[in-house]
Write a structure and sequence with these properties.
globular, Nucleotidyltransferase, domain 5, five-stranded mixed sheet, 47% helix, five-stranded mixed beta barrel, alpha/beta, Tex N-terminal region-like, Arc Repressor Mutant, subunit A, 5 domains, 718 residues, 15 strands
Length: 718
């Protein structure tokens, strides 16, 4: 198969663009590198387009692998023909391939195969001709006790089984049924009856599926979140889910028009076989196929939501290098307190118990005041889990000598990090409570650098993450992490092993070697010193160098995203302006005098030159937004404090296909349904809100029994 041609047609891209991108990918180039530094080669394709080319190429390779296996299987059976081979080679989807293979696919004994063993295939052929013969007379010659055919009725039944299987394996018939199902198949669910006849509706564990105890909707229009909810209910034994047209008659009639060509008694036998083939063989086959189709579609939509949320979380505003006091709150076990320097290194830890007595609360306030003065603390990070709001109130009672901001920080995944090998390597002499508090503090300083240490699936920013295809989820989330890390850039001399491993061209093994080199030799003097790292050759250097920063380098371009392969070009620009690269980066008037069109060459066009000029203007600019302090309503700390009609500040904690979840500071996120996000109709919640965005919401309803909060943003300023 011509991959480039097929991919170009599927993605509506230029053939040359795809060909060149495939060459780069096959040569080991990463998606971020191609998107950033090979714009002229690809025709300025972005990361999304390049990743789509890569993914489709991998699918086509899997298709070819399956094609080879099928061809080999049919050849081994001695049933390959030139026409069949041509059809197999022309197939462009896995469905087409499997349909062609179906009649030749080794299978367990079926009613049709048993009938064939009993010698009834000629009878089936006679019936299919649909002549004027009497079926009973035709069947008499096949009656044989020796072969297990007791009478003519048994002979005709066996012949119909053969016809039914042929109907179910006929490519035209399968496509006909597919098309009819696509238009009319319904997704239905019913509550399951238990062994004693009672239904699961009486089971408290099944209450969350109550909305779908008797549900019906067009299968191909069912939204992702509902498909995944129904399938989860089925998995848990609460629901029985089916996919099929409500009325099978139009499908049966369409098949009869294809197979029943006469009006004789033999034709009636074929009609009976067609109905049986549809009901017994095609229906379960199509139900499985459509189950997989809508599940795959639901998975993709859910993964897309998860990936977008993760991207927004990773690119959340960093506070920057500040001295942090971080608190992991707790009622009975106390609050674990750690003090971090501006580089995130642990300087002190202890536990305070502000909730055990008035005396202990006063002692906790005094301790926090003393720690902030002793360690010159600039900001306090407070975990938003249990006792978070209460701890925030304690902090607000402190009287600090110097200005200190207090910020609530998401704890999602902190416990996963604290028990991980990464945390044990960083803090071998401290327990999980200290590690968790450190993670909370570092998240405030730089969310990206800290969150890359955690499996993205543990951060909890998606919907039905355990129900979707785990391989696709992992691949998609890793793509997001790689994209975010490389778009921000990484400081070579301070980055953790985990952060380095996501840099284009590096990976875990080279990251270990970079850290080992750094520990042994000290800080890297410049980017080119990377070539001294064991096993980091020219190719890896080409891929990673532009995404790494060396702020203390003697070459000012090492602080930027300008790739070393373009240093000579920038030096030529500076030389022609009669100045140095350093001065060129600091003098805007000089840069404005440069005519970049003069520097266009075969391998360096305007897109790359424009990127270079942007970098000279603002070297290594962080693309993330500026940090803003957020505060909850100080009068609202419990769900019981909420009243309908209240307007409150909130922070978006999760975005799903059906709306956004907002934390208003009561330890239970509220839902702003997609219909309540704006005054206008919204197709995608991301059109209106972003992850961790500060918003205003109005309380619509509070369900204390089910701990559910309904919110609206209609009429409120976003």
């Amino acid at each position: 198969m011509n991959y480039a041609k097929h991919i170009a047609e599927q993605l509506n891209l230029g053939l040359r663009q795809v060909e060149k991108t495939l060459e780069l990918l096959e040569g080991g180039a990463t998606v971020p590198f191609i998107a950033r530094y090979r714009k002229e080669v690809t025709g300025n394709l972005n990361e999304v387009q390049i990743a789509a080319i890569r993914d489709l190429m991998l699918k086509l390779k899997e298709l070819d692998k399956r094609r080879e296996a099928i061809i080999q299987s049919i050849e081994e059976q001695g049933k390959m023909t030139d026409a069949l081979r041509a059809q197999l080679l022309a197939a462009t989807t896995m469905t087409d391939l499997e349909d062609l293979y179906l009649p030749y696919k080794p299978k367990r004994k079926t009613r049709a195969s048993i009938a064939i063993e009993r010698g009834l295939e000629p009878l089936a052929e006679s019936l299919l001709r649909q002549g004027p013969e009497d079926p009973e007379l035709l069947a008499e010659r096949y009656v044989s006790e020796e072969k297990g055919v007791a009478d003519t009725a048994a002979a005709l039944a066996g012949a119909r089984d053969i016809i039914a299987e042929r109907v179910s394996e006929n490519i035209a018939a399968r496509n006909k049924v597919r098309n009819l199902w696509r238009r009319s198949a319904m997704l239905t669910s019913k509550v399951v009856k238990s062994n004693d006849g009672e239904d699961m509706a009486d089971n408290p564990a099944a209450a969350k599926f109550q909305s779908w105890f008797d549900w019906k909707e067009p299968a191909m229009r069912a939204p992702s979140h509902r498909v995944l909810a129904l399938f989860r209910g089925e998995e848990q034994g609460v629901l029985r889910v089916h996919i099929a047209p409500e009325d099978p008659e139009p499908v049966v009639e369409a098949l009869e028009r294809q197979f029943v060509t006469g009006r004789y008694a033999t034709s009636q036998q074929v009609a009976i076989a067609v109905k049986d083939g549809y009901k017994r063989l095609l229906t379960p086959s199509m139900e499985t196929e459509y189950y997989n189709i809508i599940k795959e579609r639901a998975d993709k939509e859910a993964i897309k939501v998860f990936a977008e949320n993760l991207r927004q979380l990773l690119l959340a505003s960093p506070l920057g290098q500040k001295r942090i006091l971080a608190i992991d709150p707790g009622f009975r076990t106390g609050c674990k307190v750690v003090c971090l320097d501006a580089q995130g290194q642990l300087e002190h830890n202890e536990t305070i118990y502000p909730f055990t007595s008035v005396r202990e609360e006063r002692a906790a306030v005094a301790k926090l005041e003393a720690l902030c003065e002793a360690f010159k603390i600039e900001a306090i990070a407070i975990g938003n889990g249990t006792a978070g709001r209460e701890t925030e109130e304690v902090v607000k009672r402190c009287r600090f000598k110097n200005p200190v901001i207090a910020v609530m920080v998401s704890e999602n995944g902190a416990s996963v990090y604290s028990a991980s090998d990464v945390a044990r390597r960083e803090f071998p002499d401290y327990d999980v409570t200290v590690r968790g508090a450190v993670s909370i503090g570092r998240r405030l300083m730089d969310p990206l650098s800290e969150l890359v240490k955690i499996d993205p699936k543990s951060i909890g920013v998606g919907q039905y993450q355990h129900d979707v295809n785990q391989t696709l989820l992992q691949e998609s989330l890793e793509d997001v992490v790689v994209s975010c890390v490389n778009s921000v850039g990484v400081e070579l001399n301070t980055a953790s092993r985990e952060l380095l491993s996501y840099v284009s061209g590096i990976g875990p093994s080279l990251a270990d070697k970079i850290v080992a080199y750094r520990n042994k030799k000290g800080s890297f003097a410049n980017r080119h010193e990377l070539l001294k790292v064991e096993r980091l050759g020219d190719k890896a250097f080409e891929q990673c160098a532009g995404f790494l920063r060396v702020r203390e380098s003697d070459n000012p371009l090492d602080r930027s995203a300008v790739h070393p392969e373009r240093y000579a070009l920038v030096e030529r620009m500076a030389s022609e302006m009669g100045t140095t690269v350093e001065e060129l980066m600091h003098n805007k008037e000089l840069r404005q005098k440069i005519d970049i069109n003069r520097f266009v060459s075969d391998d360096c066009g305007l897109p790359t030159l424009q990127d270079i000029m942007k970098e000279l203007d603002k070297p290594g600019l962080d693309p993330r937004a500026k940090f803003e302090v957020f505060e909850f309503d100080k009068n609202i700390t419990r769900i019981e404090d909420l009243q309908e009609g209240m307007v409150l500040p909130g922070i978006v904690t999760n975005i799903t296909a059906f709306g956004a979840f907002v934390d208003v500071g009561v330890h239970q996120d509220g839902l702003v349904h997609i219909s309540q996000l704006a005054n206008r109709r919204v197709a995608d919640p991301n059109e209106v809100v972003k992850f961790h965005q500060h918003v205003k919401v109005k309380v619509l309803e509070v369900d204390l029994r089910r701990h559910r909060i309904s919110l609206t943003m209609k009429g409120l300023e976003v």
